[in-house]
Specification:
Elements: H1 16-25, H2 30-41, H3 56-65, E1 72-78, E2 85-90, E3 96-104, E4 107-111, E5 115-117, E6 132-135, H4 138-152, E7 158-161, H5 171-181, E8 194-198, H6 202-208, E9 216-220, H7 226-232, H8 235-238, H9 241-255, E10 260-265, H10 273-284, E11 289-294, H11 308-320, E12 324-327, H12 341-353, H13 356-367
Parallel strand pairs: 4-7, 7-8, 8-9, 9-10, 10-11, 11-12
Antiparallel strand pairs: 1-2, 2-3, 3-4, 5-6
The structure holds S-adenosyl-L-homocysteine.
Length: 368
């Protein structure tokens, strides 16, 4: 079942003003709302018992009224190569999602999931193979970052919504998540340090341009024309490139933010120089930055990574045309690196060895 944020009782997904309203309803002063918000989003409290400046009876009332939605680590893999940490988290209903922590010279970055599974069907992506389970709540998106910050003991400075799921397919929850994450009374992560990646849902991009946000928008392009794009991404049949690029232009002009275009290079599919030239032609008029990602092969598909020579040649051709390009540094190569791979492997293994309800029950128990 796909469900958006409508739950009045998910207090960790509420804006400060909404908590103030809730407190009014139980005859509590407004400053209690500020205290609770601070406990949830700055002290990263997991239960009301930790809120030591609230009376015991209020803590009990809150505990009865508001279940706290979060994520609980099931597995953590740490890369021996670069310290990248990949987390498998369980949600309260037993579903599993994954998140990644990466250390860069400019700070610590977390890549979060926005949905359990995905329904976009991109051919090279592991997250979408079993379809969409459900949208994540704002609280569940936030808690991936909160749990990782507590586990590492280091401040998270950058957040990328590039894990499993299509963020613009969970639009309202995404917006709430961004506003909570960047609020000064919360973790106060600058919107400039938040990147949202989309496969190209045009109405979502247009709507997002009107929200007054300073986030970076990344577009998964992966092809310089509709014919190739359609073989890789079903969404390309719904929104052709000319409509997508027009929406991107509108986004860049309205927000004043530079866009990123992601291009996963697949050997023999989208990586030759003719395609590089076609991409250069498209983006010349557009502006923006290109991020080249040698495709991460997944076992369910036979797509192969472009070789280094092809990647470099592709990059040089774009640069010759005045386009700003980087090659995505591969992090955590020794742990299940690509989107959705860790989760997929976990689900496959557990389907093989024990039935799913049993596994979900076990996770639910661990979750308390
Ligand atoms: N749904 C969003 C965000 C999720 S994935 C989107 O489509 O943008 C983040 C990026 O990783 C996307 O550009 C996606 O196309 C890419 N990706 C997914 N699987 C990949 C793989 N196996 N190899 C390389 N890139 C991949």
């Amino acid at each position: 079942m796909v469900k958006n944020f409508t739950d009045k009782w998910d207090i960790k997904s509420m804006m400060a003003e909404e908590i103030t309203e809730e407190m009014k309803a139980i005859a509590q002063p407004a400053f209690r709302a500020r205290q609770i918000y601070g406990w949830l989003h700055q002290h990263l409290a997991d239960d009301f018992g930790q809120m030591s400046n609230l009376s015991l009876s209020l803590r009990e009332t809150l505990g009865e009224r508001y279940p706290l939605f979060g994520v609980k680590p099931v597995q953590v893999q740490v890369s021996k190569l670069d310290g990248t940490r990949k987390y498998l988290f369980a949600l309260a209903d037993g579903l599993v999602i994954e998140s990644v922590w990466m250390k860069y010279h400019h700070g610590n970055s977390v890549c979060i999931s926005s949905q359990a599974g995905c329904r976009m069907g991109c051919r090279f992506c592991a997250s979408t193979i079993d379809g969409l389970e459900r949208n994540l709540r704002p609280s569940e998106m936030l808690d991936q970052i909160y749990q990782i910050q507590k586990d590492t003991g280091e401040r998270v400075s950058n957040v990328v919504v590039m894990g499993s799921g299509e963020p613009l397919d969970n639009y309202d929850n995404l917006l709430r998540f961004i506003r909570l994450l960047s609020s000064p009374e919360g973790l106060n992560i600058s919107q400039r340090n938040i990147t949202v990646s989309t496969c190209g849902i045009v109405p979502g991009i247009k709507k997002l341009s009107q929200e007054g946000l300073a986030i970076t928008l990344a577009i998964s392009l992966h092809a310089p024309n509709d014919a190739v794009r359609q073989t890789l991404m079903p969404i390309a049949r719904k929104y052709p490139l000319d409509e997508l690029l027009a929406a991107c232009k509108e986004y860049a002009e309205t927000t004043g933010r530079r866009m990123t275009f992601e291009y996963s290079l697949v050997k023999g599919v989208n990586d030759n120089l003719r395609e590089a030239a076609e991409l250069a032609g498209l983006l010349k008029r557009q502006g923006g930055h290109v991020n080249l990602i040698p495709v991460n092969p997944i076992k369910e598909r036979d797509y192969v990574q472009s070789d280094q020579k092809a990647v470099q040649a592709f990059k040089h051709l774009l640069e010759k045309n005045g386009i700003n390009v980087t090659i995505r540094r591969e992090m955590g190569r020794d742990i299940d690196g690509a989107c959705g791979q860790l989760r997929k492997r976990f689900l496959d293994e557990h389907d093989e060895y024990e039935d799913k309800p049993q596994m979900e029950e076990r996770i639910r128990k661990n979750h308390r």
